[in-house]
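Milestone M4 deliverable, item 7.
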Amino acid sequence: MIDRKTKLRWRRNVRRGRRQVEDLGSQAEENLERHFFRRFGKLLDVRRFVIGWMLLVVLLLAGVSLQTRSLGGYYKTMRPVKGGTYSEGILGSFTNASPLYAAGAVNTSVSKLLFASLFKIDQNGALVSDLAVKYVADANGVKYTVTLRDKLTWHDGIPLTADDVVFTYRTIQNADAKSPLFSSWQGIKVEATNIYTVVFTLPNSLSAFPYSMTNGIVPKHILENVPVTQLRSVPFNTNQPVGSGPFMWNRVEVTGKTPETREEKVGLIPFDGYHEGKPNIDNFVVRSFRNIQNMEESFYSGALDAMVGLDAAPKKLKDNKNIVEYSVPLEGLVSVFLKTTSDIFVDVKVRQAVVQSIDQASLLNGLGFPAVLANSPILRSQTGYDKTIVQLAYDKAVANALLDSAGWTKGANGMRFKDKKPLTFTLVSQNTEGYSLVTKDLQKQWKSVGIDVVVQLQPGDDFQGSVSRHDYDALLYGIAIGPDPDVFAYWHSTQANLSSATRLNLSEYKSAVADKSLEAGRTRTDPSVRTVKYRPFLEAWRSDAPAIVLYQPRFYYLARSKVFSFNPRLFNEPSDRFSNVSQWMIRQQKIVN
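Output delivered:
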């Protein structure tokens, strides 16, 4: 029980608390009245001052924000970054990705992206390592020992070893495989001494041999059980290829209901285990086109990032400053090959006159693009080139005199005749814008000395047929020479015979002096000795005039925007553009410096 005294004490405490609360409330009201309500009127009197300060603060904040953004240009720059899809359009068709058989612009491009090789040609035209780290030649230049990189793998994860290299080259050497590379590898012994070492033993010294080791290597574990006679037609070539290159196979799509509209779209994805590092581009698409118009339309619509196969930018893009044009000299020659067995060119005087009636400088001015002038069957940059032994110089008076002495006289119309037969021949070339311009100029210049030339511009497949059959009197054509000056395949008499595997002696030129010189030049490794050995060939070639060399061809590449890390200076062939494709980048992003 609580006594009465305690209750009274509690009541006194409660009353005291209430009085304190009332006192505090009264003080609060008095303070609000004194410090806020009475001064609020004064605040209205200085409202302009307050508003001014508020606006100043807002302006300062806005200024700082704008300055931060503007300064971004100093501490942030646009830089290439990884990612994106790159689509390249190429004239031609896709039929075979295997490096054992790939031919044509589309096939070789796909093959180069999928399959790595022992060595490759870089953007400067130099031979550099790929699957192999080095080669060592013996003192006689007959035995080449090649060492592979460590821990190489195929796209399916299986290790790549020297056995795969041996399998590749022995398959090429098998006549039943019917590889286009067959003739280049005959008589060469290939063996593996361990999983990282391959030894090539040549029947004779060949200075250009290292450049032969640039074809793709194929997997033994996938193809070894395929009958050799069936290798050309297995699914591996078209929809199940497994390589060791920067990109792996994804899929192929075929569209178009007619031959003219048919297209193949080959989709590739990066290979994580690529020995030079995973490619920066997420997807690489190669699209084939049968005609230029369809390819250009796809480029205009934004479906393509680049085009291959044009001679120059389409008129519609001439003034487009966003596109990027790459013009890269190739290690080759565009020449007019005069078939020395043709009735009109059996006479060396006629050949000499045909050569000396052409003004190269005038012809190159009409090309529409800068070209590297050529005047010898060996390139200016190569061992063996001699500036004192070049083709017969332009001299119209000498050309006319040669034709006169050969019995070809001018008629009333200015054209030449002999025994009532006109001096005429057929010039065959491919139907491209560049070759069309060149043939017109050639035709005009030859007409000025009384020669009537019939020009035949043929579509790609027909033209290649004419080349392989030597179905022409004269042929305007570009040949690949490569980094080494060995031009045996184009000028040695054995390469003109019907029994020759390639028959690349397009002039059907035969000279005992030239043959001996070519044989000696290709078996020497000392540059100074090679130069001496090639001199008789150059002298015979100039005197016999089997061709007119005009200029080095170029690889023209048109891109929608800059391709970062793609800075080519010289190629052996167009597919060499992919030598560093794993480093390409196509996207940009602002990044802090």
